[in-house]
Amino acid sequence: xxxxxxxxxxxxxxxxxxxxxxxxxxxxxxxxxxxxxxxxxxxxxxxxxxxxxxxxxxxxxxxxxxxxxxxxxxxxxxxxxxxxxxxxxxxxxxxxxxxxxxxxxxxxxxxxxxxxxxxxxxxxxxxxxxxxxxxxxxxxxxxxxxxxxxxxxxxxxxxxxxxxxxxxxxxxxxxxxxxxxxxxxxxxxxxxxxxxxxxxxxxxxxxxxxxxxxxxxxxxxxxxxxxxxxxxxxxxxxxxxxxxxxxxxxxxxxxxxxxxxxxxxxxxxxxxxxxxxxxxxxxxxxxxxxxxxxxxxxxxxxxxxxxxxxxxxxxxxxxxx
Length: 321
What we know:
Number of domains: 2
CATH topology of the largest domain: Immunoglobulin-like
């Protein structure tokens, strides 16, 4: 049975709709050219088709049963990003489950992998992207997991003395939450030189003064948390820079301001034409996940780690049209 979620809250009922699934998938394929190139609407919204191509290889001499593959579902964000539908070439049962961070969901599928075999499955996400402005749009008012996004974590070292010192200065210099968070948003742009590096995080950024989108977003989130405002990183597919990627190719952030989560992108905001900044989002990237979840994961019971390391290969390629 194929996957479908007309809206995220309908996922539990999707498996009852086999005939509709097949018709819906056929329609997406037939109309692909219109969806692929970003059907647009008067308000600036656009529909895109995001494809995850999952490749599973068993290069050894053992048949593997009970191989579990988990793929995170791109997130639904009120007034910004809506998952309209999910279909797949995989015909087995799929469960939709919650990540421990309480805000992201993933699809859980179980495979049998024959020896010396290669299998590919494609998952198609139809997504509507809508330009967002926090002064106009209410945003995401959910408080699920907020306590998790006040703690120091990998890359967001909000308890480090260098971070807390800056946070205290910003907090004292500004009179309300919006002013403080805008100052935290400006800070990475003021002190960092952009360099494309492997993920290092906020503490590295403040100590060495350079980094890429990860360090810009991490430093903003760390200062925000140190001031007492929940903030979280978002892993994204920025299709303005490339149309195919093997992993999220951009990091930004979200912060909880005046009772709602709003998007923050300190890195893309350095280009004023990008449409991204403090509380602003254009329609040129897809948010795949937030802090505390993974993009994909795999495991199997009864398979030794030595066999897995030697013979099992997994990959996911993301493309957008």
